[in-house]
Amino acid sequence: AKRRATTFAAPYEPPLPSARPPRWPACGTMPFRLRAELQRHGEDVRGVAFCAERRELVSASRDRTLKVWSVPAAGDGSSHFACERTLEGGHTKAITCVHWIPPKTCEGFPDGVIVSGGMDFRVVLWSGGDGDTAPKLTLQGHEQVITKVTHDARGRVVSASQDKTLRVWEGGTCAAVLAGHESSVLCATVLSSGALVSGSADTTLKLWTSEGICSNTLRGHNDSVRAVAELANVGIVSASHDTTIKVWTLDGSPLMELLGHTSLIFGLCTTPGGLIVSGGEDNFLRVWADGQCVQAVEHPCVIWDLCTLDSGDIVCACSDSSVRIWTQEDALALGDEAQAAFAESVRLRKEASKKQSNGGASDTGVKLEPMSALLKPGDKDGAYKFIEEEDGGWAYQWSSAQGEWVKIGQITEGPEDGNGSGGNTINGVRYDRVVPVEMDDGVARKIGWNNGDNPYDVADKWLADNGMPDYFREQIVQFVIANSAESSGGLFSRADADAQNNADPLSGRRHQTNLYIPQSAPVKVELLPQMDGLRRKLSEFNAEQGTLQEDELSLIDTLLDQLRDIKAIASQKISAPEVEILTKLLVWPADRLFPIVDTIRLLLLSEATAGVVARSGELLSALGASLHRTLQPPYAKPALFTSLSLLANCFWSRALDNWLLAVREEVLGGLVGVASFDNKHVRIGLSIVALNYAILSTTKADGDAKRQTLSLSAGVLSSDGVLEPDAAFNLLLAVGTLVFEDRALKDLARDLGVPGIIAQYETSPTEKLASCCREIEAAMR
């Protein structure tokens, strides 16, 4: 969002309650002090809600759990918030929001209702009673992520979603759908009058009557409206990604604009005493009174959501997995030591951010890790770690026999220095720089190059020497450039890439400063199968299905003979009889499809063949039907992997672009389920398809395709399963490509939890993951 000058509207005198908040003299004073830090969640805390009747606080997290905390009674002088119970099992993905409906408000829930919404498009109801931790009811109907949940005067649940609608639920069913916003609905609250207010990524707020009729639309923000709250006896307060807070009368007239945040505002609430409280991406909690910021408290993390206790204490949902509570009562505040520890956490976060912006590299060009990295055992015998100590960098090697890291020497020169170092040779050949490479098979290899070498030539030679398939070429090129950039000599520059390849080799753009995003060239899968085995399976399955005659089988045999050489495939073009045979075979059951699908995958490496396929309506129809079968459970593993590889190769020719966009919704929808399939090759195949769709939808400026691809990519990245580095890398490239220079997609990415995903992967020991995360983080500013 654009930065704006800090100016205020003329002061106004709203009819606030008689007990007005004091006018503190300066923003730097500290009326609120830290009262408690609640730390039981495993990931970002995305929502908080308080129930005064039960004196309990609930927090919701990306870790898919809700935690209920006891709140000390007012006046008992305690600051102990005990975690009483954990609610889990209701969501399959991250929880994004939470709300507490008081006791005796919602029929069938005498103890009150905890309502949660998630990235799984679900609204889940939980009992507010003690000891009851299982989900009671799941409300389904929304088609995108749930962004906010609340309740109306009749005790009915109200939910907002990125599908541009609000839904009102009664007795477990949808009683009304409120449509009218032109983009994602990001927030909602019910006023004391009974009217509903919603805010949207379309930059507007809407007021709705209890009958679900839009009575007014408020315009004034320049970016997504992220949070809305009621200011008692005044009107409505809204916070936006445009970094502003606006105060409105109930009839929609603007009263005041509050400026002070320097980045997106995520959380907003008001206190019983009439204060406005906000927090967001700039890590600041801000307290406002009479149009002025009277306090700004920096946090070591993003503030996702806010609520207040009946005492006026402020509760913050934080991206570092914590819930923080702030109080104005000195007797309830933590001691000086705890306050100092919090301040130190802020300082350390700033220091880490500054260091991270420098890439974390030492003067020698070696990326150093903290001593704590030695607490994790090595992946294999002989693995290296480079550790930062007080007197410089030291190299450690893992000894499986001893079960520990052994210090082997101090780092005095960068690894590119080849003077007299036997470590800079491969098979007796000396290079200016030698770096270890570990591919998906876990085998340790080395790659070497000299000053000024073209990284494409380096990659081609290394792939040939090590018998690796060509589809690793771009990854090796990126690896060479990244490791050259780390060296103090700067062995290969982006300008060199432009000069030798006429454009940036990674994005196709000139003068592109990023190494990884945006991507412009789709990834293809060129790996050759064992042809004799493929032939046998085709013959065996045909005998079962009785599809082809002998002359047709002979034609397939001839076709397979032509697919033994990757380079020769590029010049081939299939004939009309071959198209007819392929169409016939695609009707086989899902568990018998993999040999024919793998054959078509290879054929699509030819531009001419891809053109023939694009013009064959019957073949495309059969191909779409076969994909539908393989992308639905129960999954047939061989057909699933080969189908994903075939899809990846469809992007290689522009001839199939329109067909890919036509089947996009079904394909990406199917991949949401495939993401849970426990197989690393399938996950890597899925990630390649997601990346290729990201590139295609960006090239075609297809907004719906971009949003669906981003939702899939973020969802897989945030899942609990182990994600291979290559799969994670492809998905991060997809996210980065989609959000690059697209403000609307950046907003959606934030709503999907991408900042938390970046925080998770930017500390990865895999350098390309960490570097890609830094580029995405910069692109989203």
Question: Strands of the largest sheet, in order across it?
Answer: 1-28-27-26
Mean pLDDT: 81
Describe the main β-sheet briefly. Answer: 4 strands, antiparallel
Question: What's the total count of β strands?
Answer: 35
- Unreliable stretches: 1-29, 356-365, 412-423, 485-512
Structural classification: alpha+beta
The gyration radius over C-alpha positions equals: 29 Å
Q: Count the helices. How many?
A: 20
Oligomeric state of the chains in view: single chain
Shape: globular
Helical content class: 25-40%
Strand content: 25-35%
Distance between the termini: 8 Å
Summarize the structure.
The chain is α+β, with helices and mostly antiparallel strands and 781 residues long. The chain contains 20 helices and 35 strands.
Keywords:
781 residues; alpha+beta; four-stranded antiparallel sheet; 35 strands; 31% helix
Can you give a write-up of this model?
- The protein is an alpha+beta fold and 781 residues long.
- The protein has 20 helices and 35 strands.
- The strands form ten sheets. The protein has a four-stranded antiparallel sheet.
- The longest helix has 22 residues, at 336-357.
- It is globular and about 85 Å long.
Outline the fold blueprint:
Elements: E1 33-38, E2 45-51, E3 56-61, E4 66-70, E5 83-87, E6 95-101, E7 113-118, E8 123-127, E9 135-139, E10 146-151, E11 157-161, E12 165-170, E13 173-179, E14 185-190, E15 196-200, E16 205-208, E17 214-218, E18 225-231, E19 235-240, E20 244-249, E21 254-259, E22 265-270, E23 276-280, E24 284-289, E25 292-298, E26 303-308, E27 314-318, E28 323-327, H1 336-357, E29 384-389, E30 392-399, E31 404-410, E32 425-426, E33 429-430, E34 433-438, E35 444-449, H2 455-466, H3 473-486, H4 494-501, H5 531-545, H6 550-561, H7 566-569, H8 576-585, H9 594-603, H10 607-615, H11 617-630, H12 637-650, H13 657-662, H14 664-674, H15 680-699, H16 703-717, H17 725-739, H18 743-751, H19 754-761, H20 767-779
Antiparallel strand pairs: 1-28, 2-3, 3-4, 4-5, 6-7, 7-8, 8-9, 10-11, 11-12, 12-13, 14-15, 15-16, 16-17, 18-19, 19-20, 20-21, 22-23, 23-24, 24-25, 26-27, 27-28, 29-30, 30-31, 32-33, 34-35
